[in-house]
Amino acid sequence: MVDIEFEYSVPVLVIGGGACGCIAALAAKQAGSDVMLIEQDDRPMGSTGMSQGLISAAGTQQQHKHGVEDSAERFYNDIMTKTQGQADPVIAKIIAENSGPTLDWMIGDLDLPWRLDTSFRPGYGNSVYRVHGWDGHNGQDMVDLLHQRLSEADIDVFLEAKLTVVHTDDNHRVCGVSLTRPNGEIERLGCDALILACGGFAANTAMLQKYIPEVCHARNNGHEGSQGTAVEIGLKLGAQLGDMGAYQGYGMHTEPQGISVPPNILINGGVLINQNGERFVDESEDIAGVVLPVLQQPGDFVWVVYDERIEKTALHYPEMKQLNTLNAAKSGDNIQTLAAAINVPGEALQQTLEQAHLAQLSHTPDAFNRQWHDDLPPENKLKAFKVIGAIYHTQGGLQINERAQVVHQDGTSLPNLFAGGGAARSVSGPAHWGYIPAMGLATAVVLGRTAGQSAAAAASNSAK
After folding, report:
1. N or C terminus: fewer CB in 10 A for the chain?
2. Which CATH code of 3.30.70.270, 3.50.50.60, 3.40.720.10, 3.40.50.150 fits the domain covering 8-246+396-463?
3. pLDDT (tens digit per residue) in 418-438
């Protein structure tokens, strides 16, 4: 028995005000449950707010509208191929089968303006056009719009309240939580079901040193609130963890602006060069894993080189608009003037770009095994951003089952505890190389909806 007096109780309590938490709350409400959402910051943001707001989804009405043939089976196969068969097949199946219906529900029922991004070409694991976004808007716009939908659905949101303790009975059933306010005041809330959607641990240096030491000294471009709260709570409750070495890294975090260069720049022909004017990686192979080669280069930065043709493929992204407004790029009318502008050896840069063009013209892989196909390396008037390697968010977390229910170390499921988004194990496999573009928000919204529906059902059963 739990000898704690709760100030009041709600059927479903959601911890975290990012995409996962908002979608979970909206799904639970639609399933007929009363819901309360708790957010630790004074303005909801989280990892969602720092993202591009892009979601990978298969079999959507938007894909059908554009004549793109896709299916849950194809998405599942892409996930398992990218992760070398090491993603959790149960979670991969949840994502593959429910991503399309979830996105269609978001557009149809929630009136969220997501559309297929036909400028985000297949690559980095996605075998077809599968990335959806809100044209001209970013992740913070997504968070703000989702909170507007929470208000319209009469879902109570408590800000500036941090989860500190989860109270359970002898059968591992969650009875309620303790929350800490900024002034130190403690509030205790009871609940029939609890959803952890409070992010990963990319901002927790000690956890990074333990689980992902290779990037513990990389720049953190995730939210500072990603302190591993769900992992710490889960471990105290005896939960299993999975894929704790997985993360989304990124090798194009601009310095000093701190803005992400859209991946379209690399997808459509851009290259990364070090301070010796040389390429060092196949830029088209792994959008997340490229962070490690970047971190291994001389000095603490590299350059992403592109041209006006490549730039046009990314101009609709807010990040590119910000970078251009800030005049962040160095430019040159030719290779030599760009080399002078970015202080790299002109002869080396010329040889680097000539080799890439030769590979493209001969339809053969270049020295780094990049297949150029119809893409052209940068030429004529050139531009370059100074970039560094960073970690954006972690992809490991609490082990869940097909209902987004947290799994105990003994293999049983915790009766009324659910998790999604950065709090849960994702589908990137055990390391950086399994990440697929826009998968972070795909898992957030799909597992959020699954958790919301499951929590509503658990709360309903508890009330009987």
Report:
1. C
2. 3.50.50.60
3. 999 999 999 999 998 999 999
Q: What is the 3-state secondary structure (H, E, C) of the chain?
A: CCCCCCCEEEEEEEECCCHHHHHHHHHHHHCCCCEEEECCCCCCCHHHHCCCCCEECCCCHHHHHCCCCCCHHHHHHHHHHHCCCCCCHHHHHHHHHHHHHHHHHHHHCCCCCCEECCCCCCECCECCCCEEECCCCCHHHHHHHHHHHHHHCCCEEECCCEEEEEEECCCCCEEEEEEECCCCCEEEEEEEEEEECCCCCCCCHHHHHHHCHHHCCCEECCCCCCCCHHHHHHHHCCECEECCCCEEEEEEEECCCCCECCCHHHHCCCEEECCCCCECCCCCCCCCCCHHHHHCCCCCCEEEEEEHHHHHCCCCCHHHHHHHHCCCCEEECCHHHHHHHHCCCHHHHHHHHHHHHHHHHHCCCCCCCCCCCCCCCCCCCEEEEEEEEEEEEECCEECECCCCEEEECCCCEEEEEEECHHHECCCCCCCHHHCCCCHHHHHHHHHHHHHHHHHHHHHHHHHC
428 near 76, Cβ under 8 Å? no
In which residue ranges of the chain is CATH 3.90.700.10 found? 248-391
Residues 47, 226 contacting (CB under 8 angstroms): yes
CB 22 within 8 A of CB 37: yes
pTM: 0.92
How far apart are alpha carbons 404 and 298 in whole angstroms?
43
Cα 242 vs. chain centroid, distance in angstroms?
A: 17
**Could you give the residue range(s) of every CATH 3.50.50.60 domain in the chain?**
8-246+396-463
Amino acid at 34: D
For residues 172, 175, 178, 179, the Cα torsion angle rounded to the nearest 10 degrees is 110
For 248-391, CATH gives: 3.90.700.10
Look at the block and give the residue holding tokens 């160095």. 330
Structure tokens at 376: 């052209």
